[in-house]
# Entry
Amino acid sequence: MKQSDIDDILINPDQYLRNVLVDNVIFGYHNKELKVLLQQPIALDKWTVTGGYIKKTESIEEAANRIAYSRTGLKNLFFQQFRAFGNPTRSIDGSKNAKNFTKLSGIEVPDDLWIFDYFVSVGFYTLTEFSMVKIEKGVYEAECQWWPIDDLPALMFDHEHIISEALKALRLHIAHYPIGYELLSEKFTLPEIHSLYETILGKPLDDRNFAKRLMATGIIVKLNETKRIGAHRSPFLYRFDKEKYNEGLENGAALAF
Amino acid sequence: MKQSDIDDILINPDQYLRNVLVDNVIFGYHNKELKVLLQQPIALDKWTVTGGYIKKTESIEEAANRIAYSRTGLKNLFFQQFRAFGNPTRSIDGSKNAKNFTKLSGIEVPDDLWIFDYFVSVGFYTLTEFSMVKIEKGVYEAECQWWPIDDLPALMFDHEHIISEALKALRLHIAHYPIGYELLSEKFTLPEIHSLYETILGKPLDDRNFAKRLMATGIIVKLNETKRIGAHRSPFLYRFDKEKYNEGLENGAALAF
DNA sequence: TGAATAGTGTCTTTAAGACAGTATATC
DNA sequence: GATATACTGTCTTAAAGACACTATTCA
# Structure
């Protein structure tokens, strides 16, 4: 749990559910790079994924969305619940006992204050195109920035585990459902979507087989336009067939890479 | 939330996490039938899946196990988290406001008591062989019994949805990982495991292709014994190769039915 | 015409799916 | 020998995977 959240829930304890929160692993893709949005609470040297408490009036999905919106300024991002984390070690941390809390905040609190009990975290991941994001850090965050998924800073609690589980879930998802609508421009080239899949999966995919299979699903449509990319052959542009895409999200699209 | 749980958490509020609980959908298999263990709290006419609060000293997995043990008397059952449920409508229910609560229990409580806020439910499912289970109903349950999955009684809250999501998760699991170790005798016949798969998936599977594929995974081993089943040809007995089975649980076993 | 990237077709191998007749045990 | 169940092999079709050359653009 982050210092800022402790403050927030102390100031407005009545509007939040207790002992349960949402952690939302925000993945950002841009130009063959996959990154994750992390924040560093003031007065702590470790980083956390974005997360927050759940209001009594909202669902866990709404909470995950609200958190993503508050950091990225974007709505209608693709997001997905992947699993919940909950065990007593989630509270064994320097910030999670009364003495340390008082030292950090100057506020005196009883030893058995309920916020020192562990919190069950419901994990979501969210996908976004990171060049479109104007990061808005929270008032209690010293920093909020993108980190490459294979070069993460020191993370609080089990957040490294949460990120790796989120990535595992994302890679499983990509093998069964279409992906990319929120990550590419409306019109995109075959090499662009090819790179997206390679980057998320972290492995090369044969370009001929990739194009063959992707076209076979019908979720993308070739346009009669090309994109000029300089001193090279101009690639054709494609767009998603939103109907087929949504159908794929519902029923699965056979793209088992 | 069940009446019994409300009592329990009122009597011992300090040992449990607040606003979060575990619901454990216990599936029972026996003789070509798949059932789910449901309980009916005293003074209510609707049924619920088994569930309970999470102690501050235990993980959500330990809580799910404790619940399964308390109802079935069995340990080391196969269980799996599938997803969390949380939205404000989870608290709109006859038992979830102060007036009704007082009417049912005779205990006066304030209108804004925290237990009337909604609870996030972390959903697990558990598999067991139901002829081995001696059902132990909780002190606050009027009934606790097996129900066929395609003939359920009226269920509280979103519990029908929880069961259908659990079943969906189980069927997804069975397509990617081995299953059955906890559901069959140590030695079993091909027709027995064939029926198990057909029952869980709810559809017929070609017997020749099933045997071919199952043997190809190496997770079962043919023994040099047969089982006498009366006036018919005696089927051979098989057992699981526990090493291959566990490896399949870790890395997946290609059995995409 | 050289450099960089786009785009595409064929063959092989493997897996999935459909399908039916023989073998065995007991009465 | 009648009956009920166990057991298994082949063919067809579809998908996956490996693989390399031609086309375009522009400097």
In short: Chain A has a mean pLDDT of 89. DSSP finds seven helices and nine strands in chain A. The CA atoms of residues 67 and 123 of chain A lie 12 Å apart. Helices of chain A lie at 3-11, 60-72, 98-105, 159-176, 190-201, 207-217, 242-251.
